Amino acid sequence: MPLDFTLTPEQEDIKALAHEFAEKEIRPVAAHYDETEDFPWP
């Protein structure tokens, strides 16, 4: 019996939400924190 690893519609929605959050909130400041080796406390 083969395993089915496709995501459910709910899982697809969560994945899209996480991607949107990362693009809007993390990507714009990621390079700064990488260069300064600081932790993003805010």
Write the layout of secondary structure elements.
Layout: H1 9-36
Characterize the structure shown.
It contains one helix and no strands. The chain is an all-alpha fold and 42 residues long. The radius of gyration is 16 Å and the shape is elongated. Helix content is 67%, strand content 0%. The longest helix is centred in the middle third of the chain and has 28 residues. The mean pLDDT is 94.
Task: Return Rg in Å.
Answer: 16 Å
Structural class: mainly alpha
Described by strand count, sense and barrel closure, the largest sheet is: none
Which range best describes the helical content: under 10%, 10-25%, 25-40%, 40-55%, 55-70% or over 70%? 55-70%
Given as residue ranges, the uncertain stretches (5+ residues, pLDDT < 50) are: none
Shape: elongated
Tally of individual helices: 1
Number of strands: 0
Strand content: under 5%
Q: Tell me the distance between the termini.
A: 48 Å
For the residues shown, what is the average pLDDT? 94
Q: State the order of secondary-structure elements, H for helix, E for strand.
A: H
